[in-house]
Amino acid sequence: GMLALPVAALAISAGPVVPSQPFDALFSASDLGLQPLAGRKALITGASSGIGKAAACALASCGVDLVLVARREDRLTEIADEIYRRGLGVHVTTLVGDVVEGETLYEELERLAAAEDGPDIVIANAGGAFGKANVGSEDLGDVRAMLDVNVFGAIKTVRALMPSLLAKQRGHVMFIGSIAGLEAYEGGSTYCAAKAAIHAFCKALRYETYGSGVR
Predict the structure, then answer these.
(1) Catalytic choice (84, 106, 185, 191)
(2) In terms of Cα–Cα distance, which of 113, 127, 126 is closest to 214?
(3) Which residues contact 45 (CB under 8 A, 6 or more apart)?
(4) How far apart are CA 93 and CA 89, in angstroms?
(5) Are 105 and 95 in contact (CB under 8 A)?
(6) How many CA atoms lie less than 13 Å away from 107 in the CB half-sphere?
(7) Cα–Cα distance for residue pair 161/118, rounded to 1 Å
(8) Please, which domain of life does this record's source organism belong to (predicted)?
(9) Which of 13, 48, 108, 202 is the S-S candidate for 70 at Cβ 3.0 to 4.6 Å?
């Protein structure tokens, strides 16, 4: 379905601090009614803050069951508690883990995907920009971290769910890209490269899934 998310819900920062996200603003998303969403199930990575948190609250308000994945258990619990407090009639599953390193998480995602009521919406959102140094002075740890979470983590997440989505011949797969993947900026070389990689990956995936029922 088409969601109109309030600006406050989607605001993100180029720095490490995510702006305040009051729950009332996050749950005020409106369903435009072009496609009913109630009864579907969405898996969202990086769901503890930022766009992932906003998407979780917006989808819950439209009657979508959720599988929320992130490393910060307390944040996931807070979101789930808030959804249940509002009596939205949806079920929330929280999974604590790292989309890059977590083999146990990967196996759990495969198990969930194979279930008859497994997620049919996948939002590969986990990511981030670390550091602002120019090429030649950047921290290689930051470089590796950005490539891992923005590229490998996203691809690994979709890899766990795609076989089941294709077998069921239905589902929507979304990645959170960035204008940085199309227009580079100084001090963002690796982040721009990572988001450009996701753009290319999505384009290839779109070709591969044409006619499969998976969008």
Answers:
(1) 191
(2) 113
(3) 52, 69, 70, 99, 123, 124, 125, 126, 153, 154, 157
(4) 13
(5) yes
(6) 3
(7) 9
(8) Eukaryota
(9) 48
Report which of 185, 212, 182, 215 is spatially closest to residue 198, judged by C-alpha positions: 182
**191 within some domain:** yes
Beta-bridge mates of residue 95: 69
Residue 204 scores a pLDDT above 90: yes
Structural domain contains residue 21: no
CB 105 within 8 A of CB 97: yes
Tens digit of each residue's pLDDT (9 = 90 or more) over 168-198: 999 999 999 999 999 999 999 999 999 999 9
8 A C-beta contact, residue 97 and residue 104: yes
Dihedral, CA atoms, 203, 162, 83, 77, nearest 10 degrees?
-110
Q: What is the pLDDT of residue 38?
A: 86
| Tokens at 79, concatenated | 């979101």
Q: Which residues contact 147 (CB under 8 A, 6 or more apart)?
A: 190, 193, 194
Please give the C-alpha separations between residue 76 and each of 53, 81, 84, in angstroms, as whole numbers: 9, 9, 12
Provide the domain limits for residue 194.
Answer: 36-209
Tokens 């509002």 belong to which residue?
Answer: 86
Would you call 106 a catalytic residue per the annotation?
no
Q: Report the number of distinct structural domains present in the chain.
A: 1
Residue 11 lies in a domain: no
Run of H or E residues at 96:
strand 92-96
Q: Domain holding 171: CATH number?
A: 3.40.50.720
